[in-house]
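Hi F.,

I've been meaning to write this up properly since the lab meeting, where we talked about keeping a consistent format for the predictions we share between groups. The idea is simple: the sequence comes first, exactly as it goes in, then the structure tokens exactly as they come out, then a line or two of notes. No screenshots and no reformatting. I'm using this chain as the first example so we have something concrete to point to.
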Amino acid sequence: MGVAWAEAIKQFEASHPGVKVQFEEKGFEQIRQNAGMILNSDEAPDIMEYNKGNATAGLLSKQGLLTDLSEEAGKRGWDKIGPSLQTTSKYDAEGIMGDGKWYGVPNYAEYVMVYYNKELFTKHNVQVPTTLAEFEAAMDTFTKAGVTPLSVGGAEYPAQQILYELALSKASRSFVDSFQLYKGKVDFKGPEFTYAATTFADWVAKGYIAKNSAGIKAEDMGVAFTQGKFPMVISGSWWYGRFVSDAKFQWGTFLFPGNTLHPGSGGNIWVVPKNAKNKSLAYDFIDITMKPEIQNLLGNSGGVPVLADPATITDAKSKELIDNFDKVTSTDGLAFYPDWPAPGYYDVLVAGTQHLINGTKSPDAVLDEIAKPYNDNLTSLGK
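Output, unedited:
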């Protein structure tokens, strides 16, 4: 995305003489924690890349901090992106995604997969698994050889994505619609989350997940994989380009074995703050990032474009990434992310997975812990 956006800035400045783009990079955590404060001030940027979902963009739209982009989306053709990608662009008056006005525009997509070190797989005679049972058997092979199979970041988002993958292995689309879109009741002691929490704890006990990973940040998790210290890492397509440039070994990817549903969605969205001083320029910039030329560049640089011409994707690694995404979307397999349904839920899930890694709470107690804020949020919405 960085490669594509750098080119978009260049094209924007060329087509808007006298206008300078000031690009400021912030970490995911910085933006997550401070977005409301930044957007509610007279220092608000003209455009910002922001996390999507009920707990983030939905909450800010409900608070009146974002500009309604519906008219621009129709006028400029941003609404040509697929229906599953539009889900995270639109929010109703309560800030619930899927319906209502356009408050954001994704110019890339993303999904969670398993990255694996082909050289370590060959060395330990492990085949790419196609079922969950084969996946666990593969991890057994590594642990018996004294190798921890998974690089995991328990101090931030990655561990909860593993928990959610496990829940999705027992889930249906109606479970996802209930959990994410409030279209039905969610039983946190039902088969999906019970299996997820007990299996996650079991994976820690078996040594698939290291006990010190509760304190590992996402960045350190990714770096450890690129250094060849772990055979696998379960995380998102946003790592892809980085692994292409940083990993000095042969690696590949596969979808979480046996699942038809996977964490994923349209990528983070362009939002225009209500307090933005140059809204029309912000719309022009979004428009450039959606141009086929920029989308094709994004696709050949390790990203998942939303409006690219598939024939222009010539890079072999990028093609593999995009083909797998097409497999997920063609079967309606995007299940969004576990921290989206309620404000502050990200921290709740980080704490819950840390308890499972450290063994400080039982799976049953962790399920109670993650159920309460979810249900409290539903009550506050009158659901």
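Notes:
The longest helix spans residues 363-380.
The CA atoms of residues 52 and 182 lie 16 Å apart.

If this format works for you, I'll send the rest the same way.

G.
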